[in-house]
Amino acid sequence: MRVAYAVSSLDLLLWWWHVDVHIGYCRQAARTVAKRYGVRHPPVDVKAIATAEGLRLVYADIGSLDARLYRNGDGWVLELNPAFAETAQRFSIAHEVGHLVLAHDGCGSQPEHERAANVFAAELLMPLDLVRSALRETSRLGDLTQRFRVSKEAMLIKLDEQHLLLKLTSFE
């Protein structure tokens, strides 16, 4: 068994801003996957997408890691730590789907691949058109995070990158 990914979500978020990747390409790849699976409203069924893309999801005690992806025979196994919040698990699943769709070798070994997978995950879980639509109905951060089933941090990064933070009237 070869471990292909062993980085925590916090580590990924800490250097989120520090790696240059082709962000537009990563977002478009996520939009293509969302379209392929008929995503029309939040929350995105990321588990169904991951399974359809060939990942086998397994819950396991993997210490301080939130997730770990490895190749097992002809397929991929994604171990998820059940001790982590559902929002972290959802982001990890989308992140790993990103690695597969973007054809990254050696997940976790190159900062630009991690950044690209983060961009992919954010767009898959929070498609820009659906975020804009949701902002027409609510301007409360808590409402958005519940609707998309993502963490406050992930939603704030998404809104900031899209210059939509000023649309919020409440950070609760």
Write the layout of secondary structure elements.
Elements: E1 2-3, H1 9-14, H2 23-36, H3 46-52, E2 55-59, E3 67-72, E4 75-80, H4 86-101, H5 111-125, H6 128-137, H7 141-148, H8 152-161
Parallel strand pairs: 2-4
Antiparallel strand pairs: 1-3, 3-4
Helix pairs in contact: 2-5, 3-4, 4-5
* Proportion of beta-strand residues: 5-15%
- The neighbouring-strand order within the major sheet is 1-3-4-2
Write down the domain tally: 1
Q: Helicity range of the residues?
A: 40-55%
Give me some keywords for this one.
globular, disordered N terminus, 50% helix, alpha+beta, 8 helices, Arc Repressor Mutant, subunit A, four-stranded mixed sheet, 172 residues
Task: Briefly say what this structure is.
By secondary structure, the protein is an alpha+beta fold. 50% of the residues lie in helices and 11% in strands. The protein is globular.
Report on this structure:
The protein has one domain (2-127): Arc Repressor Mutant, subunit A (Orthogonal Bundle), CATH 1.10.10.2910. It starts with a strand and ends in an 11-residue tail after the last helix. Strands 1-3-4-2 form a four-stranded mixed beta sheet. 50% of the residues lie in helices and 11% in strands. The longest helix is centred in the middle third of the chain and has 16 residues, at 86-101. The relative contact order is 0.17. Mean pLDDT is 88; it is low at 1-7 and 10-19. It has 172 residues and is an alpha+beta fold.
